[in-house]
Amino acid sequence: MPVGGPDTTRFGGHTPCISIDGGGRSHIVIDAGTGIHQFQKSLPDPGDEGWDFHVLFTHYHLDHIIGLPFFKPLYDPRNTFTFYGYPYEGNAVNEVIHRILAPPWFPISLAEVPSTQHFVSLNGDGVSIAGIEIQPEQLEHPQGVAAFRLKGPERSVVFATDYERGVSSHLDDRLDALARGVDVLIHDAQYTPQEYELEHIGWGHSTWQMAVDAATCAGVGELLLMSHDPDRTDDGVDAIVEKARQSGVNLRAAFEGLSIVI
Fold first, then answer.
1. CB within 8 A of 86, min separation 6: which ones?
2. Is 206 helix (H, G, I), strand (E, B) or coil?
């Protein structure tokens, strides 16, 4: 859930949205949490040609899609959207999105939205968008989740949110292979080890120690801890970073507005 207030001003309290500037008219977006509102505010007027948005979903839980109905460019007929996601229980990504933008959950249905939409069901194959090579990989989370490796002209990044490491060595090996040697690994680190053992086993999230283990196994250049618990204050995140850095891994906590060159 999104949170606000003086205790979360440094790291931010929006739910996840990652944007990649593809140059020209293209924008790549991973997940459409409430953070998409911040991305929206950064966009200039698209001009007569409009923007070309490519939106990839890690999964369809509410915190990762809740910002989509409120994303103003969706209602601009100049813009084109292509949505990517794995099918869920036989429902392709277009069927899932149609369920999100529909009464009574939202007053406007997707059929009424004036922008142009296309839909791509992921199947494990990589895609190339605006010169960025994107490779998906399915991991462990209730109802499933996808991680993405992005390779740009200069650097590579893996985005692995809402992933519970240690449940399946096979899936851990998948992530380790996906992240092998990347410049930046952005990894779920919602819990401390004590919180995880006490009441969060099977909830679909990792501890900071699990994130450190993933970074170590994959030999990444930098680890970014993300998916901060909504009850965690900025000071609490600082404490986790201080503890995690004792491992010797180059790491920091992801924060709202963080920019990475790829």
1. 59, 93, 121, 122, 123, 136, 138, 144, 146
2. coil
pTM greater than 0.85 (yes/no)? yes
Quote the percentage of the chain above a pLDDT of 90. 92
Tokens linked to 76: 């601009």
CATH 3.40.50.150 describes domain 6-253: no
Sheet hosting strand 18-21, strand order edge to edge: 18-21, 26-30, 52-56, 80-85, 116-121
Mean pLDDT of 45-50: 90
End-to-end CA distance of the chain: 29
Report the Cα 256 to chain-centroid distance in Å. 13
Say what the pLDDT of residue 46 is.
87
In the chain, which residue ranges form alpha helices assigned H by DSSP?
A: 36-41, 93-100, 169-178, 193-195, 208-218, 234-244
Helix axes 208-218, 234-244, angle to 10 degrees: 40
Q: Select from 229, 189, 228 the least CA-distant residue to 206.
A: 189
For residues 226 and 188, the answer to whether their CB atoms sit within 8 Å is yes
Domain ranges of the chain: 6-253
Residue 140 confidence class, pLDDT cut points 50, 70, 90: confident
**Span 64-108, pLDDT tens digits:** 999 999 999 999 999 999 999 999 988 999 999 999 899 999 999
DSSP state of 172: H
